[in-house]
Amino acid sequence: MKARQGDYREGKALAAKKAIPRDERLPDADVHSQGFRLTREARRSALAEDYVELIADLIEDGNEARQVDIAARLGVAQPTVAKMLARLTAEGLVSRKPYRGVFLTPAGLKMAQESRERHQTVEAFLRSLGISAETARIDAEGIEHHVSAETLAAFRRAMAQGG
User: Fold this and answer.
1) What value does the mean pLDDT take over residues 26-36?
2) Rg, the chain, Cα only
3) What mean pLDDT is predicted for residues 111-134?
4) Distances in whole angstroms, Cα of residue 10 to Cα of each of 4, 7, 15, 18, 27
């Protein structure tokens, strides 16, 4: 127990030395936890959004969305794709036909469209800041899942104002 108390005191002293000053006090716990809850929810939906957006892209390019193509474009193994497609099917976002590709349901198509719109807005905003096309595309891929409607609207206003 004494070692633990010593470790605690040592850790607290080290944290005090390296403390990063905050602009504000910690918010109320309920308010504070809301951001963390939203982030966890965004993480859970990000993968599904990536899959349905890619499936929509493959189909729109005139191809079938095949498991092998999805795996190659996402840089994952085919069994990983198979597992995710089973989840998306169970969630009513995709349908699969034997010896055919994967198809989006109306709910999957809606999710893909919303995800693509967020991605395009974030990417355009980053480009408006002078970020290179490649970096903006890559960064937007992560940001699009975590950005709020309020922030997207602010991005659009800033771009419309030329800023």
Assistant:
1) 71
2) 21
3) 95
4) 10, 5, 9, 12, 27
**E-assigned strands of 33-78?**
none
CA 96 – CA 102 distance, rounded (Å): 5
pLDDT tens per residue, range 81-118: 999 999 999 999 999 888 888 999 999 999 999 999 99
Angle between helices 29-60 and 78-90 in degrees, nearest 10: 110
Strands (E), the chain: 94-96, 102-104
> Dihedral sign, CA of 22, 28, 29, 33?
negative
Q: Mind listing the domains of the chain with CATH numbers? A: 33-160 (1.10.10.10)
